[in-house]
Amino acid sequence: MQTITVTSPDEYTAALAAHPRLLVDFYKDNCPGCRMLDLSLDKFAATESAAGVALLKVKMELVGEDFFRDHGLRQTPTLALYRDGNEVARLPGFQSPAQVETAVRNSL
């Protein structure tokens, strides 16, 4: 699984257009659940379901609170799954590796 870090809204838009199967991790630094989710994503990355999926890391401190609000995000962490540029699922809060894998298999 390829991991891409976004530092601006323009990079976010470009990544959505460039990757047909995208798992987006919306997070911030001072979030314990975000750090725990990173562990889940590391374990998910080692599964067969992660093949062909790009992980996009979007940090609130870099892209800004307005960007998060404009995307309807109410908490961190939040995972969003995109297929061909369209959001197909959103998972707020911590997710276990199994929950991430199930969501990706069912949505992407």
Characteristics:
108 residues, single chain, 5 helices, five-stranded mixed sheet, Glutaredoxin, 5 strands, alpha/beta
Layout of secondary structure:
Layout: E1 2-6, H1 9-18, E2 21-27, H2 32-45, E3 54-59, H3 60-63, H4 65-70, E4 78-83, E5 86-92, H5 97-107
Parallel strand pairs: 1-3, 2-3
Antiparallel strand pairs: 2-4, 4-5
Helix pairs in contact: 2-5
Please outline what is shown here.
With 108 residues, the protein is α/β, with parallel strands linked by helices. It has one domain (2-107): Glutaredoxin (3-Layer(aba) Sandwich). The protein is built from five helices and five strands; from the N terminus they run βαβαβααββα.
- The CATH architecture comes to 3-Layer(aba) Sandwich
Round the Cα radius of gyration to an integer and report it: 12 Å
What amount of the residues lies in strands? Answer: 25-35%
Strand order of the largest sheet: 1-3-2-4-5
* Number of β-strand runs: 5
CATH superfamily: Glutaredoxin
Measured between the Cα atoms of the first and last residue, the distance is: 14 Å
Tell me roughly what share of residues is in helical segments.
40-55%
Mean pLDDT: 96
CATH class: Alpha Beta
List unreliable stretches of 5+ residues.
none
Largest sheet: 5 strands, mixed
By DSSP (H or I, 4+ residues per run), the number of helices equals: 5
Q: What is the H/E string? A: EHEHEHHEEH
The backbone outline, from C-alpha atoms, is globular
CATH topology: Glutaredoxin
Provide the domain count.
Answer: 1
Give the structural class.
alpha/beta
